[in-house]
Each structure stands twice: as C-alpha cells, then as structure tokens.
Amino acid sequence: MTTIHDDLTNIRNQYEEIQSVKVSLALFGQPGAGKSSLINCLVGKNVAEVGTKNDITQEASSHEWNGLYLVDLPGYGTKMFPADTYLEKFDVLSFDFFLCVFSGTRLKEDDIDFFKKLREIGKYCLFVCNQVDRLWQEDRTLDEIKADIVNNIEEQVGIKEPIYFTSCRHKDGLDKLTEGIYDLLGDIDSAKQEMWAKSAKAYSQKSLEEKKRACEKFVAIAAGTSAVNGFNPVPGVDIAVDVGILVRLNKQLKDYYGLTDEGLKAIEMAVPTIAPIVKNLVQYVATDGVLFLLKKYAGMVAVQQFSKWIPLVGQIIAPSVGFGLTMAVGSACLNDCHKIAEAILQKELEKMNK
User: For residues 312 and 217, is the Cβ–Cβ distance under 8 A?
Assistant: First the structure.
C-alpha cells in the first residue's frame, strides 16, 4: 500500500532528476559559418559572442543555458588538434549529438573526416547549411542550389543525410532545425527531449505546444513537492505549501518561455490586448504575488481535475487540496506564459513574412 513517505520520496526524486538533466551538443565546422550566431538562436539568448573575425577556433567555447550545454569545437585533425588525440581531449563521447555547420555548397575534408569518425562511434550528427541568405548563383533558383548541396553532401560523406538550411539573420529554417533536434533527442533520451522542449527557443506553434507539454509535467511534480513540503501556511487559508518552490517554479517557467522584462514590455506595446496577461505574469514571479494567488484559488480548486497526475505524484498527493491549490497557481502561470509566447511568435512570423 502506498504511503505518504513513498509519494514524498518519489516526488522529490523526480524533481531532483528533472532539475539535473542536461542536453549537451557540440557544433563543428568551418570558421565563419556562424556557429556562435546559431548557438544564440537555438537558446533564444545572446550567450555566445558574435564577431566578424574568421580566425580558426583555438579552443572549445562552451555555453550553458537552462539545462542546455552547447560547445563550439575547434578544427578536427589539425596540427594543433591531431585526430589521434581529439576525441579524448574534447571528451567527444560525452556529447548527446553534434551539428556540422557549414556555409557554401561543400564540406571541408576535416569536417567529413570528423563526421565519419562520429558515425563509427555511434554518435548522432545533423548537417546545417547556415547563412542560406548568402546562397546565390546566376540563372539558378535557391531550390536548385539547395538540391545541389544535398547531392554534394551525399557524395562527400557516402550516405544520404537530411540537410537543414538556416539563416540566423532572417531566422529562416530554425523552426525545422529545432524540431529536428527534438525528434532526434526522442531517439536518445525522453528526459533530454523534454529538457530541449522546455529550454530551446520555439520557432513554430508545434514547438510551443511541445514546450507546454513538457512544462505541464514539470509543474505537476514541482506542485507536488510544494504541497508535501508544506513549510508555511498560506495566510488566511488553512493549507500549508512551500511558497518558495512555487516562486522558483514560476520564474523557471518565465525563463523556459524566454520571457525577459524587455520582451514583455515590447509585446505589451505591440499587442495592447496582452497587457493584462503580462501584468498577471509579473505577479506570479514574486512572493507576494504567489501568496495572493494562493488565497485567490483557495476554495475554487476542483481537486478531481488533477487526478491524471496520479502516476507522477502518487495516489495520496494528487487528490490532496494542497496539491490542487499549488497546481492551479503553477498552471495559471504556465498558461499565461504560453499565451504571451504565442503573441510574440505571431509578431515574429509576421515580421519574417514581410
């Protein structure tokens, strides 16, 4: 028979496991192909310095953001980094997958060699033809140029691989690339796939929905932890919950959706109808706001609606009033984050299509 101790242990273990998940990806390829810009686009934040120099990378450059670990690797098989010591020096086996980033119509020989080595050791790699906005040949369409690139890569690496065509400048193709990475991680580890969905920038409605599903699971586990910890009773309500966990949860949701203070102000001005939702979100990430919301939802929560989370949080915790209350607050924050992100995505798509 399940006990409160069993449920509590299960919830805490899941919460710690979710918080510890890391998605590690390494980018390699020719200098000047825009790897730093691509890293920034994938996370939706300027974590990598972007410059105009095309110097050969002298060392690995790593960047972390919300469970994502992205590394720009130096050239493989060079005098400075010979092939026989490269895998060990840069701990290649530790990465979940790789992006081979190039511009132009063909790969360099060292990139081909490294891809083949990755394939030999069973590592996943996606090809990204970046800076697609610079592709031009007289009397040829872009589709014809792309078809040639696909054929060239197949000829060079000896196997037909999908090629993702992207432009960081115009944000072209990033929707297909981020969705492709999501699908790839599904073959590697479902927890890593969920972390990617939560933390990577969404460039399509499909990716936003994947983000929401992953965040719903995270909210349920965090809410269960908050309810069973019960450090502090909510003023005016005879229920004890861990308000600190809820505050951290709501801040994490805001980060997962890439909602900065500057971005919130901008969308509020661009879409005035979103202003009340933005105001709500500002409340959600402050302790006083969370306390207000807990009191607001007290007595209004139908606990039965959260019964679907029993497999995650346990037979005792899921039907409890404390869980229902904290779940309601976390879900309200998540829903508002999602609505704001949808409005921002719509504005971005409108800008791209002009």
Answer: yes
pTM tops 0.90: yes
How much is the mean pLDDT over the chain? 90
Q: How far, in Å, CA of 294 to CA of 283, rounded? A: 12
| Helix residue spans in the chain (DSSP H) | 4-20, 35-43, 83-89, 109-120, 142-157, 174-186, 190-199, 205-229, 243-256, 261-270, 275-284, 287-297, 310-313, 321-352
Lowest mean pLDDT of 15-24, 134-143, 265-274, 316-325, name the range. Answer: 316-325
State percent of the chain over pLDDT 70: 95
Please, what is the angle between helix 205-229 and helix 243-256, to 10°? Answer: 170
The amino acid that residue 306 corresponds to is F
CB-based contacts of 252: which residues, under 8 Å, 6+ apart? 66, 218
How confident is residue 55, by pLDDT bands cut at 50, 70 and 90? Answer: very low
How many angstroms separate the CA atoms of 289 and 233, rounded? Answer: 15
What are the tokens at 315?
């037979």
Q: What is the pLDDT of residue 296?
A: 85
> CA-CA distances (angstroms) from residue 114 to 74, 105, 264, 282, 350?
11, 18, 42, 47, 39
List, in sequence order, every residue forming a beta bridge with 24; answer none if it has no partner.
69
Structure token pair of residue 237: 């309500």
Closest-CA residue to 254 (of 181, 177, 199): 199
Under a CB-based contact definition with an 8 Å cutoff, are residues 59 and 74 in contact?
yes
**By three-state DSSP, how is residue 58 classified?**
coil
> pLDDT tens, 145-194?
999 999 999 999 999 999 999 999 999 999 999 999 999 999 999 999 99
CA atoms within 13 A on the CB side of 132: 22
Count CB neighbours of 191 within 10 A: 16
